[in-house]
Amino acid sequence: MELELAGVHHRYGDNQSLRGLDLRVAGGEVHAVMGPTGCGKTTALRLAGLLARPAAGEVRFDGRPVPAKGRARLGARRRTAMVHQEPALLRGTVRHNVAWGLRARGVRGAELAARTDAALARLQLADLAHRNHDQLSGGERKRTALAAALAVQPEILLLDEPLSSTHPALRQRLREHITAINRDLGVTILVATHDIQDALALAGALTVMDQGVAVQAGPVDEVLHQPRCAFVAEFAGGANLLRVDHSDGAVCRVGGLAIQAPAPLAPGSFLSIPPGHVLIGLTEPVTSARNRFQGTITAMRPFDYGFLVTVACAGTPIAAVVTRGSVDELGLVPGRDVWLYFKVSAVRSLG
Amino acid sequence: MADLFAEALRRIAVLDREVVEITVRTLAISACATLVSCAVFVPAAAAVHFRRFWGKNLLIGVVQTMYSLPTVLIGLLVYLLLSRSGPLGGLGLLFTPEAIVIGQALLIAPVIMGLSIATLQGVGPGVRDTALGLGASHLRADLAVILQARHAWATVVLMAFGRAVSEVGVAMMVGGNIRGYTRTLTTAISLGVGRGDNAEAVALGIMLLVVALAVTVLATAAGRLSRGA
Amino acid sequence: MQVSGTVRRLSARSAARSTLALLVFCLVAAPALVTDARAQTTSPRLRVATTTSLYDTGLWEALEAVFEAETAISLDIIYAGTGRALEWGMHGDVDVVVTHSRSQEAAFVAAGHGVERIPFAYNHFLIAGPAADPARLASLEPEAALQALHAAARFPFVSRGDDSGTHTREQALWRAAGLDPAAVRASGRWYVEAGLGMGPTLAMAAQLGAYTLTDVGTFLAYRHDLDLVPIVDRGEALRNVYAVIVCTRTANSAGADRLAAFLCSAGGQELIGEFGREKYGQPLFTPCAAAGCGSD
Questions:
Q1: Of B227, B60, B53, B47, nearest to B142 (Cα)?
Q2: Do B196 and C222 touch (CB under 8 A)?
Q3: Which has fewest Cβ within 10 Å: A13, A39, A67, A173?
Q4: Is the Cβ of A84 closer than 8 Å to some Cβ of chain B?
Q5: Which residue of B has its CA nearest to A84?
Q6: Residue A167 CA: distances (Å) to CA of A79, A84, A124, B26, C160
Q7: What's the pLDDT score for residue B191?
Q8: Coil, helix or strand for C139?
Q9: Would you call A98 an interface residue with chain B, using a CB distance cutoff of 8 Å?
Q10: Other CB atoms closer than 10 Å to residue B15's CB: what's the count?
Q11: Using the beta-carbon criterion (under 8 Å), do B129 and A149 form an inter-chain contact?
C-alpha cells in the first residue's frame, strides 16, 4: 500500500507537534522516518495508523484520502497494524496476544489457528506460545508484539522505535525479522527511529524530520551522502561538518587545514565531506585528489558495512568509511599515522 | 465485656430463625444493590475515563468528594424521592426492601465510579494503544482495558459491597426496620442498641462480619481464578 | 501445548458464563429472598407509624400477632420520634399513626392530616435520677421539681433534645413550671441536650449522675442495668396518653379503621392492660378507651 501524509499539522495541547509534514511511502518499501526525540515521528506514525486525526492536511492510502469516520474508517485502519515503542501486552498467553487482532476482526476456528501459528512461527515464538505475558523477557515481548501485528496481515506495518533498548544480539535478530517480513511478504513498512544505524540496516528510503516538518526525503544513500542542510548532515552522523574560518578563493581555511572546495565559501559557513568519499592510505598518495592530509587515527567505530575511522589532521577530526577488509589489510588501529585524501568534488557547501 | 460476648455467641449458636432470616435478607439486599450499581456505574466510569471532555477532572473530583456523604443524608434524599408526596411516590416503593436496594445502590455509586476510574487509570495507556494498533474498534479497545484490570475489579465490588452492607442510615430511613420485611442486620443492631439489648447487638454484629468475610473470601477466590487465566 | 491452552480458555469461558448466569439469577431471585413468606401475602399491607419509646416496650409485637391472626392484614410497624412519625402520616407514607403527644396530634388533625384523635391507653412519665437525689426532688410535684433544678443550676439534667413525645412533654412541663424552655436550654451547662433515643439518654443520665424525664416503659426496661431510680412519679402533669389516628391520605382506610377499632376493642384493651406483667413485673399501660383517658 502506498501511504502519504500531505501537509499534516497536529497539536498536543499547547504543543505543535507537526507543522505541515509531507511524507510519502511507496508500496512495498521499508521507509524510515528519522529525527531527534520530539521531532514528531511518533505522531506521524499515529496519524498514518489512523489513531489520531490531523488538525490540517490529509492522510492518503493508495492516493485516496482515508474516510473521516465510521465503519469505513475502521476498515481503513485495519489495513494498517502498529507496534508501539515498549509495547504493552494484553493479559494472557503469547498465543492469546498474537491471535488478538484476528479475534477482534471476527476470525475464528481453523483460520484463526492457522494464521496465529504462521505468525508465531515467523517470529520463532512457537515454543513460547503458552507462556504468560508477565513471564517474557524484553525481546520476547517485542517479538510477540510484532507477531501480533503480523498476524492480521496488514498492508502497511508501522513500527515505532522497534529496536530501542535492545542489546546487540537481539537488535540483529529483530532487524533480520523485519527485513524478512518485507522481503518475503511484501509488506510496506514505516519505521520511526532516531538511530542512523537502524535506518541504514532496515530502510531503503528515508525521511528526516526536525520539529514537525520533513527536512529531507529520498533513498537512504542519497539522504545520508548528499545532505542538503547541516541538520541532516549532523544527524546522519559522521558528516564531517567543518566551519570555514576564511577562504582564499576556493581554498578554505579550516583550523590548521587548507581544504580545496569547488567554489569559494563565505567565512563562517559550513562545508561537509561525506565520509564515504574519504580515503585512507599508509603512504603519501599519488592521485588526482587535491586534498591530502597527514594525521593520526583517533577513533574507530563500526558503521554501516565497515568502520568509521576518525583521523585528526592538524587538530581537525575528519572521518572516513573504510571496509573491514581494508581495515585489516592496512592494519588500521587508533594511534596509527596515516594519510587522508579526498577529491575537490567531495567537498559540499552547506548554509 | 466478656459475658457480653459469651451471651452473643450463645445466641448465634442457637441459630434463631429470625436472625437467619435477617442475615439472608441483608445479604440479598446489599448484593442486589451492589450488582445493580456496578451494572450502571462501571460503564459510566468507563465512559468518563475513555473520553475527553470539558470538566472531566471536575467531575472526578466531585465523585471522590461524595465518598464522604453521610448515609443518613442519602437516606433522607431517597426518602424524599420515594415518599407518597414525592416525585416517585406513585411507585409505592417506600418502606420496602426494594427501596433499600435503590438507596444503597445510590449510596455506593460514587465509590464504584471513583474506584473504577482509578482502576482504569492504573492500567495505563499502552494497552488501549496496543488494541487500537491491532485494528480493534474503539469500543473493543475500551473493553480490552477493562479486562486488563481483571483482578482489580474484585476489589471495587468488595469495597462497594462493604459500604452497602455496613450502612444503617439508608436502610433505616427508607426501609423502616420492619420486622420480617425490611429489617437488616444493621437496623436490627441499631434497634438492639436503642433498646439496651447489647448482647443482641453484638450477636448481630458478629453475623455481619461473618457475611462480610464470606463475601471477601469469595471475591478473592474469584480474583485469583481470573489472574490465572 | 495448543490443547491445554484451548482447555484453559474453554474453562475460563465457561466459568465466566456460569458467573454471569449466577449474577442474573441473583438479581432476579434476590427480591424474592429479600422478603419472607409471611410478608408476601396478597392482602394489602397496613403501615403503622409509632414512636420509638412505644416500639421499644415490645407492645407492638404482641398486638401484631393477634391482629394479623384476626384480620389477615399484614402490619408493617415503623418507628421514629413523634415528629418524624407524624411527618410520615402527613406525607401519606403510612396509614395510621400511634403516638403520645397531645398537642402535636391535635395540630395534626386540625391541619387535616388525620381523621380523628382516639386515645386508647396511658401510662406515665417520670423523672429519674441518682439514688442519692442530691437536688432533693423526691417529695415534690413535677413543676416544683423542675423549678428547683433551674434555680440551683448545678445538678445535671439530660434532655432528649429531639422531636419526641417525651421531649414535647418535657417542654410542656417547663412551661407549666413558669419557665421558658428556650431560656432553660441556654441557662447553663447543667442542662444537657442529648439528641438520642430514650435508652441511650437514660444511659447518659446514669453516667453523669443526672436527672432526666423518661417514659415508664423504657425506664423499666433499663432499670436493672443503670443506677437510676424514680424520683418524681406522681402528678397529672406526668400522664402519658397514647392515641391512634387514621391518616387522611391512607390508601387503606378499611384496614386503618380496623386497627383503630382493634386497639379500642375489648380484646385489644385487655391485651394492652396485661402487657408487661411477665417482662417487667407490672403492667405497663392502663387501657382507657372506654373510660376516657383524662386531660393531659
A1: B47
A2: yes
A3: A13
A4: yes
A5: B130
A6: 31, 18, 18, 59, 78
A7: 87
A8: coil
A9: no
A10: 8
A11: no
CB-based contact, C281 to chain B, within 8 Å: no
Q: Do B85 and C52 touch (CB under 8 A)?
A: no
Helix ranges (DSSP H) in chain A = 41-48, 70-77, 94-104, 109-122, 138-151, 168-185, 196-202, 220-225, 230-236, 324-330
- Which of the residues C34, C78, C166 would you substitute to probe the B interface, choosing the one with the greatest number of B C-beta atoms within 10 Å? C34
CB atoms A129 and C4 under 8 Å: no
- Asked if the model's pLDDT at residue A265 lies above 80, the reply is yes
How far apart CA C280 and CA C274 sit, in angstroms, is 11
Rounded CA separation B121/A240 (Å) = 48
- Interface check for C35 against chain B (CB to CB < 8 A): the answer is yes
How confident is residue C28, by pLDDT bands cut at 50, 70 and 90?
low
Provide the number of CB pairs (under 8 Å) joining chain B to chain C: 91
Strands A188-193 and A156-160: parallel
CB contact under 8 A, A89 and B229: no
**Mean pLDDT value across chain B:** 89
Q: Do C27 and B32 touch (CB under 8 A)?
A: yes
Q: What residue type is C134 in one-letter code?
A: P
Per-position b or e across C122-150, b if 16+ CB within 10 A of its CB? bbbbbbbbbeeeebebeebbbbebbbebb
Query: Can you read off the three cell numbers belonging to residue A51?
Result: 489513531
Domain covering B2-228: architecture: Orthogonal Bundle (1.10)
Grid cell at residue B176: 423502616
pLDDT of residue C23: 57
In this complex, which of B25, B84, B178 lies closest to C78 when CB atoms are compared? B178
Kindly report, residue by residue over A218-263, the tens digit of the pLDDT. Answer: 988 778 767 777 778 777 665 677 778 888 888 888 888 899 998 8
Q: Give the domain ranges of chain B.
A: 2-228
pLDDT tens-digit profile of A99-130?
Answer: 999 999 999 999 999 999 999 999 999 999 99
The number of CA neighbours under 13 Å toward the Cβ of A309 is 32
The residues, ordered by sequence, that sit 6+ positions from A349 with a Cβ below 8 Å of its Cβ are A261, A262, A263, A265, A269, A270, A271, A272
Residues belonging to chain C: 296
Which residues of chain C make contact with A130, given a CB cutoff of 8 A? 1, 4-5
The bridge status of strand C239-247 relative to strand C114-129 is antiparallel
Q: Taking CB atoms and an 8 Å limit, are A90 and B137 in contact across chains?
A: no
